[in-house]
Amino acid sequence: MKAAIDGNPDFGNLWLTLDAGDKVLAESGAMAHMSADVEVKTRLMGGFFKALVRRLLAGESLLVGEYTGRSAGSRLAVSPALPGEVGFRDFDGDGYYFQAGSFLASTPGIALKTKFVGLKALFSGEGAFFLYCTGTGRLWYNAYGAIVERDVDGELFVDTGHVVGWEPTLTWKISGTGNFFSTMFSGEGLLLHFQGRGKVLLQTRSVGALVSWTKTYLR
Predict the structure, then answer these.
(1) Model pTM score
(2) Secondary structure of the chain as H, E, C letters
(3) Whose CA is closest to 7, among 90, 81, 79?
(4) Mind spelling out the 3-state secondary structure of 139-185?
């Protein structure tokens, strides 16, 4: 399987060239176009219960598309719903945290699990669950805006709406921007407080901020 990403950082798009028998799983509705020799099936990633949990708690689709190349050179293009950058991570038995909604596509050896953040996050507008991805294979993820990688050696506070993913070597917790009044009415919402040493992936735009801005014109 060969993969190429174009259109970054504004309108990322994933191109895949499959050999006969190659399989890739993609977020429901993400397929942009494909050649006639690609076989398509709809499946529940990880089984019904795990897929239902991801749908209800993390906002991911219940179903994913399974695309299989039937001959060498089968082509498939996958595009995220929001404009922004597409990133890539290679897994070799390790794990990685991602913000819910960041999953775009993967090879079948990747497992997606939900991680409860805490009741505080219910008020953040970003959801109370993250995705924990582990296994062996390749995974592609998407961001709203451009992706910025930050090395943490100590502490870092990030608005929950600007987090894409982070290494599990970092410890984290949800915190406010001050007292209860400041957290609820400052417009900044909740923060992810990272501690330790590792990498954090950030996105330059926030979906929550876009929704809030749009509401001002829907009166």
Answers:
(1) 0.84
(2) CEEEEECCCCCCEEEEEECCCCEEEEECCCEEEECCCEEEEEECCCCHHHHHHHHHHHCCCCCEEEEEECCCCEEEEECCCCCECEEEEEEEEEEEEEECCCEEEECCCEEEEEEECCHHHHHCCCCCEEEEEEEEEEEEEECCECEEEEEEEEEEEEEHHHEEEECCCCEEEEECCCCHHHHHHCCCCCEEEEEEEEEEEEECCCHHHHHHHHHCCCC
(3) 79
(4) EEEECCECEEEEEEEEEEEEEHHHEEEECCCCEEEEECCCCHHHHHH
The residue ranges of every structural domain in the chain are: 2-215
- In tens, the pLDDT along 22-54 reads 999 999 889 999 999 999 998 765 544 454 544
**Angle 115-118-122 (CA atoms, 0-180°, nearest 5)?**
105
Tokens of 154: 């100590």
CB 112 within 8 A of CB 46: yes
More confident residue, 118 or 196: 196
| Class of domain 2-215 as given by CATH | alpha beta
Tokens of 178: 């001050």
Residues 87-118 have pLDDT tens digits of 999 999 999 999 888 999 999 999 988 776 65
Is the link from the previous residue into 9 a cis peptide, with omega within 30 of 0?
yes
